[in-house]
Design goal:
mainly alpha
């Protein structure tokens, strides 16, 4: 018979909830920076310059072809060895999540760009619209509207993957739940609280995305 003892961890639940701020900080900052970096990489991938295409595709293959945990460990532990700079947990997490997310977002945006009717691009160029303005004002806005669900999925994945920061000592939700578990010698209850918090965050993000998608459809 399974007996849950939440009374023993009840005083520690606010401590676990404090980790929400840390989790959201890693997710939001990394997502914004990853979106900017991914947008640039996607433009490289549809560029006429082969060197830019090669760089973007090679970069994406590296970050999509290796585990995120390995990337995090390399950046956190290898940076001091290679550069002499003692990187902080915050810097290592943001850098890793940004570089990794940028690779996936670049593929999402690239697919959004290539899915658009080529006639729009040809018409814009025939009218003498500069390539940069065409991408900024015509192509990218339409692509972003089409790929919004995929971007939301990437944001959700990043939110959950941010739990890896606990491996190097980041005081996020999972790290705090593990600390409480070690102190109370109870693992199921604090981890269940952590799982519930992640679930709530994902549901909030999903609902917000649905509302935004509806607004874009009616705009």
């Amino acid at each position: 018979m399974i007996i849950l003892d939440f009374e023993r961890i009840w005083p520690s639940i606010p401590y676990i909830i404090e980790g929400v701020k840390v989790t959201l900080a890693y997710t939001s900052v990394s997502l914004c920076l990853g979106f900017l970096w991914g947008t640039l990489l996607s433009l490289f991938k549809v560029s006429h310059l082969n060197i830019l295409k090669w760089f973007a595709n090679f970069y994406t293959s590296i970050f999509r072809g290796t585990p995120l945990l390995l990337q995090l460990m390399l950046i956190y532990h290898a940076t001091p060895q290679l550069t002499g700079y003692t990187i902080s947990i915050w810097e290592a997490g943001i850098l890793t999540f940004t570089l990794n997310s940028g690779a996936y977002i670049s593929e999402i945006i690239r697919s959004g760009i290539t899915s658009l009717d080529k006639g729009q691009k040809e018409a814009a160029l025939s009218l003498g619209i500069p390539y940069s303005l065409m991408m900024k004002d015509i192509i990218l806005p339409q692509a972003f509207r089409n790929i919004l669900p995929s971007l939301v999925n990437e944001a959700i994945d990043l939110l959950k993957e941010s739990a890896l920061i606990s491996v190097i000592g980041g005081a996020d939700i999972l790290r705090r739940a593990n600390i409480v578990a070690s102190e109370k010698y109870l693992y199921f209850e604090p981890l269940l609280v952590a799982g519930f918090l992640y679930y709530v965050l994902v549901m909030i993000l999903t609902l917000a995305a649905h509302r935004l998608e509806k607004k874009l459809k009616t705009a």
